[in-house]
């Protein structure tokens, strides 16, 4: 379409339209009035650019019009119009104004007599509606003109103020602004888990031909599907969140809003928007056409939209969206606790799954005992659904709770570190025979530096008012083993896990006066300049041992 022709062509047609309007003094039929109105609309329209995407802002109930002209020569003049609603449904239509067969079509440079219009030019022209649509889908009209004509596009929003994009092109042979969709543009759900959904879609022909300038972007939300990237961005912004200005081109961390989280993993950039209406995720994954969406919430319905984006023009096309509901979170397996029975629980720190124990009270007072064997563990106890205790366990812990008969207690245990943790648990009425012996004020072992020799070490530990059995063990270790031995110690293991050669002695000890309930022991027969690991085990009436905190001591090199 040549601009020089456009300026010569348009005034002549507008002049003819003016003459026609003046010649219609009093409309005698409805069709004549409609014809006059359509001609009037051309005067209040804007020129629609060819080969460029135009953003059109619409006010509620106020139509907006654009026009363009086509010159048809010996061959047909093709054109296409693509309209993308960015919010609510709109109404739009295409009207064509064709010159009569006897009208010459355009002015010649030498013709200056444009003020006089011939009788043939005053003949009635044809104005007709060739297309109309109402909705919020992306629609493309492709036409072919055999006559020189003016086209009028009319847009109307009856719900609220909104905006749309319009793309006109008369060059249908040199490629497309919008990436091409496959013949089957559906998104297939090929896998559903508790927190993941796996999607796949057929490749766009544009992605296969232009891998460097085309990429797929996925939008995940909890509300509904979107028919265009423009509509998705509008909805997200109206909900109080903001998308990066260049969602498809360069998701820069400097463009993030406070309510956005950026995740970069395996060369994929994800933007997560937090809002009261749910979270919205955007992921661009290059030209891969299979993707597993991670970190979803169980038993939640999500909507998935895939957009094929041209990185050079930022134009996009939308696949047919789909939705899926993640699986319900499996109920944790609950183990029943019985009066006085000890349960040894091992927790996987990597999976971070809670272990649940249930106990039904047969007495008003209940006594829970926890012996931390290894690692760090968090315990949460509820009674009939209400929290009664929640804390991190350390060493040996007693919890006495008072309630009603037949109260149901739920004990949940979870490792608070990545390595495995373990704990022993017992529940019993308050008057039940204690599982563990009476414990001293401290379970630390003390060594006396001044009493160290090249061949012996003196250690001491606290006792109780109850006569109990104490067994001492020693183990020779290397200097680089000290930290590992202390960290990997299983505080629930008894002397049965130790080699017989490591046993030093066993003795009974108690004192009614706690101030004097201290005992010492000198271990002889050691090697000079050597590290030794010392352990003391306390046995109570039940026979279950309690291990004191291990102590590492190095004998003197020279004496």
From TrEMBL:
A GO BP entry: nervous system development
GO MF assignments: heparin binding
GO cellular component assignments: extracellular region
Taxonomy, superkingdom: Eukaryota
A Pfam family assignment: NDNF_C
Signal sequence, renumbered to the chain: 1-23
Function: Secretory protein that plays a role in various cellular processes. Acts as a chemorepellent acting on gonadotropin-releasing hormone (GnRH) expressing neurons regulating their migration to the hypothalamus. Also promotes neuron migration, growth and survival as well as neurite outgrowth and is involved in the development of the olfactory system. May also act through the regulation of growth factors activity and downstream signaling. Also regulates extracellular matrix assembly and cell adhesiveness.
Gene3D superfamilies: Immunoglobulins (2.60.40.10)
Primary localization: secreted
Keyword tags: Glycoprotein, Neurogenesis, Repeat, Secreted, Signal
SMART domains: FN3 (SM00060)
Gene: Ndnf_1
UniProt subcellular location: Secreted
Name of the protein in question: Protein NDNF
Residue span, Fibronectin type-III domain: 179-316, 437-545
Origin species: Rhipidura dahli
């Amino acid at each position: 379409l040549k601009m020089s022709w456009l300026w010569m062509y348009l005034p002549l047609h507008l002049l003819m339209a003016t003459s026609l309007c003046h010649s219609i003094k009093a409309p005698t039929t409805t069709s004549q009035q409609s014809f006059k109105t359509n001609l009037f609309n051309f005067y209040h329209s804007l020129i629609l650019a060819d080969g460029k995407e135009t953003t059109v802002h619409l006010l509620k109930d106020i139509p907006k019009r654009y026009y363009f002209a086509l010159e048809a020569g010996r061959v047909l003049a093709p054109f296409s119009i693509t309209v993308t609603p960015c919010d609510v449904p709109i109404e739009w239509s295409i009207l064509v104004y064709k010159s009569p067969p006897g009208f010459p079509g355009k002015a010649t440079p030498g013709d200056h007599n444009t003020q006089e219009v011939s009788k043939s030019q005053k003949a009635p022209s044809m104005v007709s509606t060739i297309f109309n649509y109402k909705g919020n889908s992306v629609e493309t009209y492709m036409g072919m003109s055999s006559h020189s004509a003016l086209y009028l596009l009319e847009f109307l929003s009856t719900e609220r103020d909104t905006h749309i994009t319009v793309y006109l092109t008369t060059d249908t042979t040199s490629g497309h602004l919008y990436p091409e969709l496959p013949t089957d543009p559906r998104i297939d759900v090929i896998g559903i888990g508790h927190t993941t959904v796996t999607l796949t879609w057929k490749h766009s022909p544009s992605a296969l031909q232009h891998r460097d300038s085309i990429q797929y972007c996925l939008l995940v939300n909890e509300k509904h599907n979107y028919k265009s990237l423009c509509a998705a961005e509008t909805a997200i912004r109206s909900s109080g969140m903001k998308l990066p200005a260049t969602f498809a081109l360069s998701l820069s961390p400097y463009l993030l809003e406070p309510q956005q989280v950026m995740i970069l993993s395996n060369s994929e950039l994800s933007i997560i928007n937090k809002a009261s209406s749910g979270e919205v995720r955007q992921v661009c994954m290059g030209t891969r056409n299979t993707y597993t969406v991670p970190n979803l919430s169980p038993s939640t319905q999500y909507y998935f939209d895939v957009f094929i984006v041209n990185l050079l023009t930022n134009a996009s096309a939308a696949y047919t969206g789909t939705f899926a509901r993640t699986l319900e979170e499996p109920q944790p397996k609950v183990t029943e606790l019985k009066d006085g029975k000890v349960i040894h629980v091992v927790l996987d720190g990597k999976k971070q799954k809670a272990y649940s124990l249930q106990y039904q009270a047969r007495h008003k007072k209940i006594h829970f005992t926890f012996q931390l064997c290894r690692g760090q563990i968090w315990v949460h106890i509820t009674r009939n659904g209400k929290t009664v205790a929640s804390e991190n366990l350390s060493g040996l812990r007693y919890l006495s709770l008072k309630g009603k008969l037949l109260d149901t207690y739920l004990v949940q245990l979870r490792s608070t570190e990545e390595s495995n943790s373990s704990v022993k648990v017992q529940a019993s009425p308050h008057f039940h025979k204690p599982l563990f012996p009476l414990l001293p004020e401290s379970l630390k072992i003390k060594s006396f530096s001044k009493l160290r020799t090249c061949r012996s070490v003196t250690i001491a530990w606290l006792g109780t008012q109850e006569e109990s059995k104490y067994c001492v063990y020693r183990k020779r270790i290397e200097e680089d083993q000290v930290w590992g031995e202390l960290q990997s110690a299983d505080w629930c293991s008894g002397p049965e896990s130790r080699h017989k050669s490591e046993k030093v002695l066993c003795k009974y000890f108690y004192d009614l006066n706690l101030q004097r309930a201290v005992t010492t022991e000198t271990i002889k027969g050691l090697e000079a300049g050597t590290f030794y690991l010392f352990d003391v085990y306390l046995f109570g009436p039940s026979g279950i041992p309690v291990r004191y905190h291990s102590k590492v001591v190095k004998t003197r090199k020279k004496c």
